[in-house]
Write a structure and sequence with these properties.
- This protein is an alpha/beta fold and 251 residues long.
- The chain is built from ten helices and seven strands.
- It has a seven-stranded mixed sheet with strand order 3-2-1-4-5-7-6, sandwiched between helices.
- β6 and β7 form a beta hairpin.
- It is globular.
Amino acid sequence: MNIDKRSDEQCYLRKKLSFALNNFPGNNLQLLNHLQLFQRSSVIARILHLQEVYEKVLKKPGIILQIGVHYGSSMAVFLSLRAIYEPYNYSRHVIGIDSFDPHHSRVREDRHPNIFTPDKYGQFFEGSEYTEFLSEVLNIHESENIMSNIKKWEILKGEITEQLRYLIQSKDLNIGLLYFDSPISNTDLKTVLSLLIPVFQRGTLIVPYSINRFIPTGELDIIREVFSLSKYKLEIEKSRFISEKNYIELS
């Protein structure tokens, strides 16, 4: 099954847009203020989707935990949303966990060859050294916002379940939003959710990587299994901005 929904014409147009970006007549500082000129509707929809799930947890305490960091654009958006919606809520940390291991990325590609086509997801191989660059960029963002003296983000680099066990040892850990920004195996998904159940709360939002019939990964079955014996009920809603994205609220 080929799930790449782009036509040849769309691929050609994106290359033209990339060429236009590289030939922007203004300087780089001007480009930073006008990047939306080159952002496709699907990219803007993703930002609106991140805003959508952030708004859902505004009245709930707890950190934003992101599984899978990739290039860190979602983390950057979450930090900006925190600065916009609740600039003085220094307890709303954004924590990302990723192995940043090219080997793991190749395993994901082997497991889902129809999803990780070379032209579409070759950029997943960012490498472990990328964390230094990403940390510098996130620091710049935070420095421009209120209460910049308090660090409100963290990147945990390593195997997901090991890093989660380390995180859970933190005192008073509470999760408002769990966001999966990368596909993981069903075994790892089950382990992640089982580890985190004690630090969930009513109103916690879980955004799986994919729970739709177009890409039947079995994630929803795992989620239902893990929560079947818990005190929580699952309320599933569809994103208003990305048709294949769903989120689950615990009640």
